Amino acid sequence: MFDTVIANGLVVTSGDSVRCDVGITDGKIAGLGIGLVGRETIDATGKWIMPGGIDAHVHIAQPQGEGIVMADDFESATRSAALGGTTTVLPFCLQERGVPMRETLTAYHARARDNCYVDVSFHLIICEPTEQLLGQDLPALVEDGYTSFKIFMTYDDLKLNDREILDVMTAARETGALVMVHAENHDAIRYLTEKLEKSGHTAPRYHATSRPVVAEREATHRAISLAELVDVPVMIVHVSNREAMEQIRWAQQKGLKILGETCTQYLTLTAGDLDGLGMEGAKYVCSPPPRDAASQEACWEGLRTGVFSVFSSDHCPFRYEDEHGKLTPRGRTSFRWVPNGIPGVGARLPVFFTEAIHGGRLTPEQFVALTATNPAKTYGLYPRKGTIAVGSDADIVIWDPDREVSLTHAMLRDGADYTPYEGRELRGWPVMTIVRGRKVAQDGEIIAPKGHGVYLERNRSPFASRAERSD
Ligand code: DUC
Ligand code: ZN
Ligand code: ZN
């Protein structure tokens, strides 16, 4: 007798789709079979039972520049995640200059504790790679389950130069951590930004002009080259176009361990979305910027052919009608001051489901691999997370594969005041989200208490772990 049985559904994993029941006991998947019996039965006739989504790239309550505030805290971001079928999120803990990383982490944990509806685990962002951090603190942090960190090749206050990147990559190699790279050429962007501003081109649409494909392609190639030099795997995050995708494919074909991620906005938005009247375009300002229809097709090609193994939202929410958000007074003077990032943690799976499955671009198994299984594997959470197998956490999303929904921001319940995907006609909707055996969201309502989500210490990525290497 199981605690709960999900009966009569189609169980879809990254490997197979099988008609069977799922038995859950003590928050774990305890049996798969026909005719299972539980104290509670959830009838999933006509539904698809998938591993809960893992969004491996989100920003929550991340401190911003002066006067700017991120729209989500842990409560609102994880609420939206749960409603959108996501059961684990991986936000970033941003290093503060001159402050020990542990201290910053303690503050992040305090913000997350007792506030989450879904499970959470932190990546680090390294913007000041001191000897103390790389030599002393990081090895201990990696041991403690902070097994991935992001570095930036752009932004005045975050970017690392090539030497610093080499040092971080070396520390990652020594500790078995996975480096995630934001690849855009900072000097090229600065050069173009200054030129645009001088000629009076300051509206949000020029954000896209200032960050062209060539700046992303060059930095992607450079990050790959530096990783080759150090002999370390890296994940190139939020890839937006064909040229950057082809750099990654070239590296993979050469035998380098280069991984790639793309996001909802690069499949569904274009630079044209930044063209709105007045400041409307600010709603779509994110980096890299959305490109064009051909770039969208290239990103689909990357997903279909395995160049990209992870599909994320890069949820980075700011309110639009807010002087601490997209309508910051400085942003009206130039696109360069518009807060960078868009919301998407709740919309990620339903938008992707519609486009991938009903658009005939991916199989249901590929959908699961990209949204749950591969993120779990890549970031050291597998097999606890990311699959439906006996012994795994019972993190499950039940889909009505044919439900038609006109998406509105009100359905997503994040802390922003808009969604870039407003009005999209979707087909396929997550009708129930279960986290460690407990129903958290059902039919658009949250039904578990805040605080059900727990913090997850992660193993090293199998792609990065020292055990994988011969030396
Ligand atoms: N990079 C991200 O990963 N998220 C938001 C902004 C950015 O530049
Ligand atoms: Zn980034
Ligand atoms: Zn991001």
Describe the structure.
The chain is an alpha/beta fold. It has a domain at 53-358: TIM Barrel. 31% of the residues lie in helices and 22% in strands. The strands form three sheets. Strands 8, 9, 10, 11, 12, 13, 14, 15 and 16 form a nine-stranded parallel β-sheet that branches. Strand 2 (10-12) and strand 3 (17-19) form a beta hairpin. The longest helix is centred in the middle third of the chain and has 18 residues, at 213-230. The structure holds dihydropyrimidine-2,4(1H,3H)-dione and zinc ion (ZN) (2 copies). GO terms for molecular function: hydrolase activity, acting on carbon-nitrogen (but not peptide) bonds, in cyclic amides; metal ion binding.
And the CATH topology of the domain at 53-358? Answer: TIM Barrel
The termini sit apart by: 49 Å
CATH architecture of the domain at 53-358: Alpha-Beta Barrel
- The pLDDT mean sits at 97
Instruction: List the total number of helices.
Output: 13
Q: Supply Rg.
A: 21 Å
Cofactor: Zn(2+)
Family: Belongs to the metallo-dependent hydrolases superfamily. Hydantoinase/dihydropyrimidinase family.
Modified residues (N6-carboxylysine): 150
GO molecular function: hydrolase activity, acting on carbon-nitrogen (but not peptide) bonds, in cyclic amides; metal ion binding
